[in-house]
Amino acid sequence: MQQTVLTLIVALVAAALGLGLGLVLQRQRQSRLKLEAEEQAQRMLRDAEREVEARRREAELEVKDRMLQARTEFE
Predict the structure, then answer these.
(1) Mean pLDDT score of the chain
(2) CA–CA distances in Å: residue 62 to residues 22, 46, 50, 73
């Protein structure tokens, strides 16, 4: 009888420790995934901003080129 009770207590303690460890590991994983997602979002935002800036510069150069062509044709 005592052996059965002791085995049951050990099993319950082991299950509780396993559950606790599982919860801690899951929280760490979720935190890591959240951080990675935030970093990826920041990278995507920076890339998009660079792309917008590059297109803006390209459009400005095209406008300047067209203005120069128009001025040359006018003269």
Answers:
(1) 95
(2) 59, 24, 18, 16
